[in-house]
Amino acid sequence: MTLAKRAQAAEPERSRPIGSAPLSYDYAGAAVELNCSESWLRDNIRDLPHSKLGQSVAFTAEHLALILQMHEVLPHVSPIPLKAAAALDIVPRGSSRAAQQFPELKPRGRSRRAAQT
Q1: Any residues with CB less than 8 A from the CB of 48 and at least 6 apart, and which?
Q2: What span, in angstroms and rounded, lies between the C-alpha atoms of 77 and 104?
Q3: How far is Cα 82 from Cα 55, in angstroms, rounded to an integer?
Q4: How far apart are CA 8 and CA 54, in angstroms?
């Protein structure tokens, strides 16, 4: 048995099972997992969770999950249903009654003088 084979046999096996995720990702791997470009990751690295190992950047699965959560967009849901708002006599913005409640503001200072001339 050669020296290389002995060393290989003495080392514990480090290969991952098929289908398991790696412990960390570089820019290329993270970009594939996040379905974005490497340049986007590099440009926004200051705002993204990551690990810095020396000068190299690494992303864990938890980092990738946090990045996805940071950029998640949820639909707007009104805190008060429209029927309840009508019962409470709440006037939506832009309605004619809302405009009547507040007088039109006039400019002050120089802009007022310039508007008069």
Answers
A1: 41, 63, 67, 70
A2: 31
A3: 54
A4: 28
Written as six digits, the tokens of 38 are 């490497």
Q: Write down the pTM of the prediction.
A: 0.50
Note whether 60 and 51 are within 8 A (CB).
yes
Taking the C-alpha atoms of residue 71 and residue 34, their distance in angstroms, rounded to an integer, is 11
Query: Are the CB atoms for 41 and 30 separated by under 8 Å?
Result: yes
pLDDT in tens, the chain (117 residues): 565 555 555 555 445 555 566 788 999 999 999 999 999 999 999 999 999 988 899 999 999 999 999 999 888 776 666 666 666 666 656 655 544 555 666 666 665 555 565
Residue 36: CB atoms within 10 A of its CB come to 14
- 98 alpha carbon, distance to own chain's centre: 36
**With the C-alpha atoms ordered 13, 15, 20, 26, is the resulting torsion angle positive or negative?**
positive
What's 59's DSSP letter? B
